[in-house]
Queue: 4 jobs
Job 1
Amino acid sequence: MAPTGVSRSTLHDILTTNIGLEPETVDAAGPVSLADLGVDSIGLIELQKAVSETYGTELPDEAHAWSVNQILDHLNSKLRKAS
């Protein structure tokens, strides 16, 4: 059965483990975009790959300009529609 939602904790783990962001950076991110957090194009590709493998859904290239909350909203919306 496919996951039906993404928690902030899970996305936090992906961003720190797969992308290499410091946990404190992710914790304090607020409305700051991934680009402003220092995520480069390769980091975005890694995030897209992790999301695709874990949740079976895509994250668009424009997610680079999204905040952590916007990414969570997008993923959870996609997963709700798929279930």
Job 2
Amino acid sequence: MSSENLRPRFFAASRRSARLAADRACARVRPEYRALLAETQGRVIGVAEYDAGDQKDEAEVSVVVADGLHLRGVGTLLVEHLVSAALVDGITTGRRAQ
């Protein structure tokens, strides 16, 4: 991810933030957290995730799409699938991750 793509996602151009996000997405399954990955040809091109924390029906939502693939529907498709999964999991309200 370029610095231009890291900054709006993590509010900094830190590679450490990106590594922590990758670790979180690949961690042990937790009922309050879900991550969906989009990939093509073995390369991850997008991630959408929600984290409900202690909330029962509300979660923070975040999305990131690889450089060069913005405005091609990758994020939209990830969000549509994440919303469907969240509803099944009892999440009814989302908020943008801060």
Job 3
Amino acid sequence: MTDPTAGTANYLLELGLLKRARRSGWWIAGIRDPESIAEHSWRTSVTGMVIASLEGADPARTAMLCTLHDTPETRIGDIPKIGRDYLTAATPEAITRDQTAGCPEPVATTIRDAITEFEAGETLEAVCARDADKLECLIQAVEYGHQGVSTVGRWIDSSLAALKTASARAIAQEVIDSDPLAWEKTRHQADE
């Protein structure tokens, strides 16, 4: 049995890989330096908190599910959708069991339960978290589109089609119809 403090430290150090690992699907879209998995997870967490607030779910629980949802990718990387047609990877639950094996039981249980809940997609919090994952991808695609990348339409379309909650669909449509820098332009107009 390993020292639980060392096991926790090892888990937290492993998560640092997500700050360096890129979201590989964006390479297919022609993005030379795509966002990291950690960057995606951060905005997914905030997006999940917002959706949960609007849908009557627990925003904190939803944000936690979002924060942890891609942590298994430290072991298998970010397999793009097309890659899943050719590869078979261990389940997120199995990877999470391995990742947390050295952690104290309360820590391991919290993380494992969150991954299981997200993957099952049955609780309202998990539905909101899964919508947040897709909505964040849509938001990123819209931003890349405004930067001149013309190949992101299918990411927008597939993300929009996957949304389950009314709140996520409404936000998505507003994002699609908006300028990503509208907030900044509005601020400058108020100063004038």
Job 4
Amino acid sequence: MDVDDATLIEDLARPYRAGTAMRVFIGRGAAAVPVLVEGLQHPDAEARYQCCRLLDRLLTADAMQPLLKMLDDPDARVRVSALHSLSCDRCKTDACLPTDGPLLKKAIQLLDADPDAHVRAMAIEAVGRSAHIEPVAEAAIVRSMSTDPSPAVRKKARWYAPGGKIHERSKGRHHRQASRTGAGIARP
């Protein structure tokens, strides 16, 4: 039985139906992206959150701008999920995410001022992707390391700051990231 797109988006907001709806969207692959992008405007935060999670796996260039807008969502879980979708290469099979431009600027703003510690912690990952090539990214992480009100966020910032274990481990990747632009997501 085929279920229409609007019903599937509604199902994402209901825990007892979300799993089935997610499997349907994943099965559709990139063809599901326009529906999920539209779902980012759903009035229910749970539906927006699940759309961000799905776009993490199905990210295309068409979803980048709508996901960037989700970084201003009133729900912290949605902001965390959007940040993850825009900054985690591990979850993608054929995307290469940008490390500069609007994402970096917004991630630094969230790192400096978001009221939710989980959002700030995820922002460290987004900012940390640029720490080797962008002085403003490194400065934001160092600032967070010493001034963030959350001990957990300060600890994570130490990992991404110069000398930290993630900063040291990711040194070799900065050459590949330096050639990326804010516009593309396709792997070379």
